[in-house]
Amino acid sequence: MSKQITVPFGPQHPVLPEPLHLDLVLEDEKVVDVIPTIGYVHRGLEKLVEKREYTEYVFIAERICGICSFIHSQTYVQGIEQIMGLEIPERAQYLRTIWSEYSRLHSHLLWLGCFADSMGFESVFMNSWRLREHILDDLEATTGGRVIQGVCKVGGVRRDITPEKLDEMVKGLKGIEHELQDLTNVFLHDSSIQHRLKGIGVLSKEDAYYLGAVGPTARGSGLAIDIRETGYAAFGKINFKPVVEYDGDCYARCAVRAKEMFTSIDIIEQCAKKIPDGTVDMKVTGAPDGEYFSRAEQPRGEVIHYIKGNGKKNLVRHRVRTPTFTNIPPLVTLLKGCDLADVPVIVLTIDPCIGCAER
Amino acid sequence: MTYLAKSPWIIHYDASSCNGCDIEILACLTPMYDVERFGIINTGNPKHADIFVVTGSINEANREVIQNIYNQMPDPKVVVAVGICACSGGVFRECYNVAGGIDKLIPVDVYVPGCAARPESIIDGIVTAWGILEEKLKNKVSSPMVSDHDHKAHHKHAQGGAQ
Q1: Average pLDDT of A297-301?
Q2: Complete DSSP assignment for A223-259
Q3: How far is B23 from chain A (nearest CA, A)?
Q4: Which residue of A has its CA nearest to B62?
Q5: Helices A90-118 + A122-143 axis angle, to 10
Q6: Would the pLDDT of B161 be above 60?
Q7: Is B22's Cβ below 8 Å from some Cβ in A?
Q8: CATH architecture of A40-358
Q9: Are the beta carbons of A18 and B14 separated by less than 8 Å?
Q10: Quick one: which of A110, B40, B109, B132 is 20 to 30 A from A326 by CA?
């Protein structure tokens, strides 16, 4: 056995925009052990429920993460609405569905770009971020914000989308679909990318299940877990199938995200057809009294907001379990036994969002 | 600022930001905003960097990292605080693990407001920093080494916030 050395990876590392620290224990070029350290981004925002009213706290919940911002606020308000027994207007449900799929599109394009960058594929990074700007333009035109939207509120949404704008959005998505196709073709069929991804970082179905993998990390290993199937917001009225791949390697996780973008476009299209007329918000009085586990599917997997209120304006407890947090144990398993050169690629395949994980 | 002697390279560190500002900084590098046309490159090495772009506020775990990066950068150097969290703590200023803006730890030259800061304002901030960099180069300003001498005072604050 050769001598073991420890190589620090992060918190400031060119491949990660965010601080995650891993101590990689190496024997020659092979990683034998990984010790993750988190806490660089911990803010302690769950404690703020004591200082903010439950209606104001939506803005804090949205700022748990700047990438999955809309879905965080959606999950939080869904929990509050369930405790208070509010039946929000159907049009608001559809609008939330549309915006959450837009968030998924922008997150997956962002990830495909960063992932290409981790392999040194600069032009694909630029191209996917160029396409992402199209999605952000639509988000900004309809909500007013590029990455932090601030459009969800307890009892509905703040803004409506006119039928003309909705038409334009669907046409725009159809217009970039062939460009997305070109982009995903690179990830799915390019031989040099396949060489970097196929058979690297394999997570078996059993491991994925027992280590609590969620989202594309689980779906890449053949576990068809997709919380959208529970039918929250308007997902119950939409036909879609979760994308599942069976190989469990980096290629499979990449393919899941690449194919999910087309599912998202399809969902937005169906929503635009089915969306009913009516108001988008309702008057809310009183305060939540009770507790609820609110679940939703983020781009990175299942997020849970636990909310507990006691009939006062301030909640008693708010607890978030984010997808990246549960995907760290699978990541540690994935990294053991891999080459040092593959570490950035494998770390990125779980799509780590440290802002979420540490809150 | 009509003539620029060198292309400023930036180093970006996410202190305890929510990612919103970080992805906007990355968006600045990509074809829509394309700051590389000004010669601005995002580098991972503090020793190659002229402008330190920080997002998010300081907390217990990252203060040492921020100081390390700052101390390793060669003179002249400029610090840009991007987003309201880096400027003052923003919506999280009352959190128990947030000690406030970056200026409590290292000298900040440019403050870019916004939650999240828009790419246009980030570019504006970097270009302003560029002018300050030229100025510092001309006047041969050397930046101080920063260390954690006021850490005890901060620690008291953090405990007070948690109660």
Answers
A1: 89
A2: ----GGGG-TTTGGGS-------SS-SHHHHHHHHHH
A3: 8
A4: A40
A5: 160
A6: no
A7: yes
A8: Orthogonal Bundle (1.10)
A9: yes
A10: A110
Nearest to A234 by CA among A78, A57, A58, A73: A78
Q: Which helix (H) or strand (E) holds A60?
A: helix A57-62
User: In this complex, do B62 and A353 lie within 8 Å of one another by their Cβ atoms?
Assistant: no
Cα–Cα distances in Å, from A359 out to A44, A65, A226, A307? Answer: 6, 8, 23, 16
Q: Please state, in angstroms and as integers, the Cα–Cα distance from residue A234 to each residue in A93, A104, A176, A237, following that order.
A: 5, 16, 25, 6
Report the C-alpha gap between A326 and A11 in whole angstroms.
19
Residue A188 tokens, joined: 């799915």
Cβ–Cβ below 8 Å for B20 and A125: no
Q: Which residue has the higher pLDDT, A84 or B6?
A: A84
Alpha-carbon gap, residue A153 to A52, rounded angstroms: 14
Average pLDDT across chain B, whole number: 81
pLDDT score of B80: 92
Cis peptide before A218 (omega within 30 of 0): no
* pLDDT, tens digit, 9 for 90 and up, residues A157-177: 888 888 888 888 889 888 888
Q: What is the pTM of this model?
A: 0.86
When pLDDT is averaged across residues B71-90 and rounded to a whole number, the result is 88
Per the CB < 8 Å rule, is B16 touching A40? yes
Query: With 80 as the cut, is the pLDDT of residue B160 above it?
Result: no
Which CATH fold topology does B9-162 show? Answer: Rossmann fold (3.40.50)
| Chain-chain contact of A355 with B30 (C-beta, under 8 angstroms) | no
Q: Are B14 and A18 in contact (CB under 8 A)?
A: yes
Q: What's the pLDDT score for residue B3?
A: 58
* Domain segments of chain A as ranges: 40-358
Spatial separation of the C-alpha atoms in residues A259 and A348, rounded to whole Å:
17
pLDDT in tens, A33-64: 888 887 788 888 888 888 888 888 898 888 88
CB-nearest partner of A66 from B20, B57, B62 = B20
| Chain B CB within 8 Å of residue A13 CB | yes
